[in-house]
């Protein structure tokens, strides 16, 4: 193979001219576009990383809020249990107090009725005694007849009650 030096230098000169033209008009803008693209990708990576960190932070905040909400709900349930227990105790105490009051009132009513019955019985006995005495005076009977008369009137008094 034989090298022709004249064409060799022409080809090198053409290559250098082509390289300079490409460098100025093709590689420069192409590398500029590629650099812009690299910067855009880098910015997107940084933005994505920041968004991921923010998402993690928001997720952690949401977990804390959820945990606090659960704790508040548990506290509210416990407070409702305590309140309902207190109300149940109060209702039971009120019922016991009312039952005691009604019992005392019934005892007083019974005592009053008893006293009325005794007073009525006393008045009936005294009326019977007067009646017996008047009959005795009228009849002037012997002791045996008198005992029979008293028993008869006592039976009448017992039957009226």
UniProtKB/TrEMBL annotation:
It is found in: Cell membrane; Endomembrane system. Belongs to the ATPase B chain family. Its main location: membrane. F-type ATPases have 2 components, F(1) - the catalytic core - and F(0) - the membrane proton channel. F(1) has five subunits: alpha(3), beta(3), gamma(1), delta(1), epsilon(1). F(0) has three main subunits: a(1), b(2) and c(10-14). The alpha and beta chains form an alternating ring which encloses part of the gamma chain. F(1) is attached to F(0) by a central stalk formed by the gamma and epsilon chains, while a peripheral stalk is formed by the delta and b chains. Keywords: ATP synthesis, Cell membrane, CF(0), Coiled coil, Hydrogen ion transport, Ion transport, Membrane, Transmembrane, Transmembrane helix, Transport. The keyword Coiled coil applies. The chain crosses the membrane at residues 6-27. InterPro entries: ATP_synth_b/b'su_bac/chlpt (IPR002146), ATP_synth_F0_bsu_bac (IPR005864), ATP_synthase_B_chain (IPR050059). Component of the F(0) channel, it forms part of the peripheral stalk, linking F(1) to F(0). It is a single-pass membrane protein. Residues 38-116 form a coiled coil. The keyword Ribonucleoprotein does not apply. This is ATP synthase subunit b.
């Amino acid at each position: 193979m034989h090298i022709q030096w004249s064409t060799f230098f022409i080809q090198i000169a053409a290559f250098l001219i082509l390289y300079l033209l490409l460098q100025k008009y093709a590689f420069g803008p192409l590398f500029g576009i590629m650099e812009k693209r690299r910067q855009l990708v880098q910015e997107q990576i940084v933005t994505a990383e920041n968004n991921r960190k923010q998402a993690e932070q928001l997720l952690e905040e949401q977990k804390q809020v959820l945990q606090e909400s659960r704790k508040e709900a548990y506290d509210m349930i416990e407070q409702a249990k305590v309140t309902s227990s207190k109300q149940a105790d109060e209702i039971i105490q009120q019922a016991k107090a009312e039952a005691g009051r009604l019992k005392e009132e019934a005892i007083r009513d019974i005592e009053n009725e008893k006293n009325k019955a005794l007073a009525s019985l006393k008045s009936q006995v005294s009326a019977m005694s007067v009646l017996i005495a008047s009959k005795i005076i009228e009849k002037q009977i012997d002791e045996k007849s008198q005992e029979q008369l008293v028993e008869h009137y006592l039976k009448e008094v017992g039957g009226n009650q």
